[in-house]
Amino acid sequence: MKIIHCADLHLDSKMNANLDKEKAKKRKSELLNTFSRMVDYAAENDVNVILIVGDMFDTASISVTTKNMVLDLIMKNETISFYYLKGNHDNDNFLTGLDELPHNLKLFSSEWKTYYELEGKIAITGLELNKDNSNVAYLSLVLDQEKTNIVMLHGQESEGNAKDKTEIINLKALRNKGIDYLALGHIHAYKEERLDPRAIYCYPGCLEGRGFDEVGEHGFVFLEVDENTGDIERKFVPFAYRKLHELEVDIEGATTTSKIIEIIDSKINDPKYRTIDLMKIVLKGALDVECEKDINYILSRYEDRFFFVKIYDETSLKVDIEDYRLDESLKGEFVRQVLDDSAIADDDKMVIIRYGLQAIANEEVN
Asked: What's the N-to-C CA distance of the chain in angstroms?
């Protein structure tokens, strides 16, 4: 039996934290397209079950297009059972107006509910955590240890010490319960670890990264359950259309914009950085205060190479005081005055000196 475990689709996310209106609209559509592609993948690979472990949607306000697309995908794939457990971003309003639920859509509530697959050999159990049940939920979980038990929960992992337990999953309380696979959602990066000698717990992460706090591979987990032994084989399947990358580039010692671009090129000309991807370039290293550095020009060199690119300048400034101590030029006088001003913080002095030297050299101050 084949199962897909996914979570945190965040369909209808606005996607406007970094992107302009047109690109945000495009990325919003791509989230829905990736979900559709995943369902197509399931149908083509004879998948029997799709577990959606929370946050299928991003907000309570769901567009008509998204609502209709999700329902159509469920209804037209009748051989796939969709197990949907709501997360902290979800509600049931995408089902509003339906006379009856699609027969292959299985829902959960604030009490444990179990469904059976493979002639009762596999039990899929889930509960939606809230402030009323989060403290007692684990006591009421009773599983038939003779079955292959898959448990679905959406929340942040914890060993039980968190003060606010509303969206906290107490891993310690789930040990030795007879779980074989604990399917989790809420964390947006893939993670798999052992829960106890019998069980694995897993976060599949989100299907598509939405911001630069979600860099790297994204996709779903593909499970195959042996019909005779109940053993579960699993693998992570990268599936995102676009990737988000954060590239740190040490430009220490560079003295010109041209040299900085040369150093970036030596790092960014890697096949893993595709033109369809989103790039965050972080400049590091200590630069001489007289370094000529035009961030806007550097950005313009890469804007057409990727779907989106941003540059963070995290370089520091270094100045050799002795180079200016006896310098009789305007630069020397300016640097000495700033360095000797006790009212200016040391970190601010470096910034002021850089801007001042740029201005004296008739360079654009940025």
From this structure: 59
User: How far is the C-alpha of 13 from the C-alpha of 29, rounded, in Å?
Assistant: 9
Give the tokens for residue 116. Answer: 């059976």
Q: What is the rounded distance in angstroms from the CA atom of residue 242 to the CA atom of residue 245?
A: 10
The dihedral region occupied by 183, where left means phi > 0, alpha psi between -120 and 50, and beta the remainder, is: beta
Chain centroid offset of residue 78 CA: 30
Q: How many CB atoms neighbour CB 202 within 10 A?
A: 23
Return the HEC string of 6-21: ECCCCECCCCCCCCCH
Q: What is the pLDDT of residues 214-272, one digit of tens each?
A: 999 999 999 999 999 999 999 999 999 999 999 999 999 999 999 999 999 999 999 99
The answer to whether 15 and 188 are in contact (CB under 8 A) is no
Q: Alpha helix locations (H) across 148-226?
A: 171-174
Q: Which two tokens stand for residue 355?
A: 């801007």
Looking at the DSSP bridge assignments, the partners of residue 105 are: 82
**Long-range contacts from 193-197, C-beta under 8 angstroms, 24+ separation:** 195/171
Which residues are registered as beta bridge partners of 53?
Answer: 85
Average per-residue pLDDT in the chain? 91
Half-sphere exposure of 74 toward its Cβ, with a 13 Å CA cutoff? 22
- What are the phi and psi torsion angles at 117 (to 5°)? -130, 165
The count of other CB atoms within 10 Å of the CB of residue 213 is 11
What single letter denotes the amino acid at residue 235? Answer: K
pLDDT digits (tens, 9 = 90+) for 89-128: 777 677 877 888 999 999 999 999 999 999 999 999 999 9
Parallel, antiparallel, or unpaired for β 278-284 and 244-250?
parallel
CA angle 208, 214, 218 (to 5 degrees): 40
Q: What is the pLDDT of residues 171-185, one digit of tens each?
A: 999 999 999 999 999
The DSSP result for 241-255, as a single string, is SS-EEEEEEE-TT--
Question: Alpha carbon of 208 to those of 41, 214, 219: distances in Å?
Answer: 16, 9, 7
